[in-house]
Design goal:
- The protein has 504 residues and is mainly beta.
- Strand 1 (60-62), helix 1 and strand 2 (82-85) form a beta-alpha-beta unit.
- It comes from Streptomyces monticola.
- InterPro entries: Beta_helix, PbH1, Pectin_lyas_fold, Pectin_lyase_fold/virulence.
- This is Right-handed parallel beta-helix repeat-containing protein.
- Residues 153-313 form the Right handed beta helix domain.
Length: 504
């Protein structure tokens, strides 16, 4: 659940190349699929759509002057009731567990200016297990959910729809997610831990739609610093989600990662988003499977975390799109059988795309920070032990693999004067560490580094590079120029264009 990147047991080799990338192997024509324009931002927080000025037919009216009116009327009304919250600040009873517990099919619609305010007293706004709940045109603010818990849909009930809502300035996660949840045209801003935590304690989440939202300035409480290495933050964090469409969102200025899929997620489509100015990576896809990442504008991410690596002398190429032990797997059913990254614009981020595999991270290993989890290919985790793990099929099935990644028709732009860097912000990488532990591991030595680099069908091709890009292959010490990257034995970026600047 937290990325483990560095466990080096090999002596550092001399850098193979420094300075600007070579252009000697560049083809004459620019790949036609490379994007030339950026995606529009979903500006939701500054001007959310207003709700109805009068109560819908048949709706129960909720009065802001009556403390606890919303929870009380929910309790006394039948399932499927629509509630219309008048303009003004609505309050729950002054008890931390005085949340609204909807019934199946309830709808909550806010009038213009309707706010549900937790007053830094109530922990949760909406909870319970009822499915099919709708929340529209309502601001939910100042609730104090504990760490790893959420304010809206606290219990991850299924089939909820959140539209034109503003969920801001809460502790914990502004929003949790259940199966078949839809979050559209909403503002998730300034929450203490996550904008949304897509986690369900029992069962998996599938059919998740996150569309047209603004997800900004989350993790205000800086949990990665308070619990170093917890892997417990992000604009949105996804856990074991089987099928998600993440499109048309503006994910920006979050402290840490913008979008982070962690542990046995599968079948994601991440498209037409603007991911910018997040302190950490724009996107992390970790110990997960099968995704399409396309038509995104990814700009000015990872400046804080990337720079912190460089400032402390860490040579790991932590990039703005980071695939950690994640790849395509045909045996896991999805709309694709690979991870395909194409027609994205990546501009002035701290580094580009890193494909990484920790040789020591597999089922039952002490280095498996997704504690207790195994791959989706092994039901009985106990089988991933010696002697069986050393032979087929467990040798392959007991570890998450970065494989079948296809990176093409993207545009990578880097101006070091904009990023304000002189080194280590210019990397594209495919690598692993030297396997060392546990002592029964069958993956010791350079086996995983050789596999991810040359045997697992990870390919860059037909991309456009503008600026002084470098490339890392096999392990952190092998820093290449474009000629070495395109040449034997790596043979990456066939059909790609390399140039020092636009118009050059």
């Amino acid at each position: 659940m937290v990325i483990k990147r560095r466990h080096w047991a090999v002596a550092a080799l001399a850098l193979l190349a420094t300075g600007c990338v070579s252009t000697q192997h560049a083809p004459a024509a620019e790949p036609t699929g490379a994007p030339s324009t950026s995606v529009a931002r979903a500006r939701v927080c500054a001007g959310p759509a207003a709700g109805p000025g009068t109560a819908p037919t048949g709706a129960v009216t909720v009065d802001p002057a009556v403390v606890g009116d919303l929870a009380a009327k929910t309790k006394s009304s039948p399932p499927g009731t629509t509630f219309w919250l008048r303009p003004g600040k609505h309050r729950l009873d002054p008890d931390r567990y005085a949340q609204v517990v909807p019934k199946k099919g309830n709808s909550y619609i806010g009038a213009p200016g309707a706010v549900l305010d937790g007053r830094r007293t109530n922990q949760y706004a909406f909870g319970g297990s009822a499915g099919g709940v709708t929340i529209r045109h309502l601001t939910v603010q100042r609730f104090v959910a504990p760490h790893n818990e959420g304010v809206v849909n606290h219990d991850s009930a299924d089939g909820w729809v959140i539209e034109h809502a503003t969920i801001k300035d809460n502790s914990g996660a502004g929003l949790m997610a259940g199966d078949r949840q839809q979050v559209r045209a909403s503002c998730l801003r300034g929450n203490g831990q996550y904008g949304m935590n897509a986690y369900k304690a029992s069962g998996r989440i599938g059919g998740l739609v996150v569309e047209g939202n603004e997800i900004a300035d989350n993790n205000r409480d800086d949990w990665e610093r308070r619990r170093k290495g917890c892997g417990c933050t992000g604009g949105i964090k996804f856990w074991a989600v089987n099928g998600a469409d993440i499109r048309g969102n503006w994910v920006h200025d979050n402290r840490g990662t913008g979008l982070w899929a962690d542990t046995n997620n599968n079948d994601f489509r991440i498209e037409k988003n603007v991911l910018e100015a997040n302190d950490g990576a724009a996107l992390i896809y970790e110990t997960s499977y099968n995704a399409v990442i396309r038509h995104n504008t990814i700009r000015r991410n990872n400046w804080a975390e990337g720079r912190s690596y460089a400032d402390r002398g860490d040579n790991f190429p932590f990039a703005t799109v980071y695939l950690s032990e994640s790849g395509g797997e045909p045996r896991v059913r999805a709309r694709t059988d690979k991870i395909e990254i194409y027609r994205n614009l990546l501009e002035n981020n701290w580094s580009g795309i890193t494909l990484w595999e920790n040789a020591d991270r597999f089922c039952n290993s002490p280095a498996n920070t997704s504690s207790g989890d195994c791959t989706l290919l092994v039901r009985d985790t106990g089988r991933c032990a010696r002697p069986g793990i050393a032979t087929a099929p467990l040798y392959a099935d007991c570890r998450w693999k970065t494989q079948r990644v296809d990176i093409h028709d993207n545009r990578f732009v880097l101006d070091p004067s904009v990023v304000e860097c002189t080194d280590k912000c210019d990397r594209m990488a495919v690598l692993a560490n030297y396997g060392t532990y546990p002592d029964w591991s069958p993956y010791q030595g350079e086996r995983v580094a050789e596999a991810i680099t040359s045997k697992q069908r990870n390919r860059w091709h037909d991309n456009v590079y503008v600026g002084p890009w470098k490339f890392v292959a096999h392990d952190p010490s092998r820093v290449l120029d474009s000629g070495q990257w395109q040449g034997a034995p790596y043979q990456q970026d066939t059909g790609s264009v390399f140039r020092a600047r636009d118009g050059g």
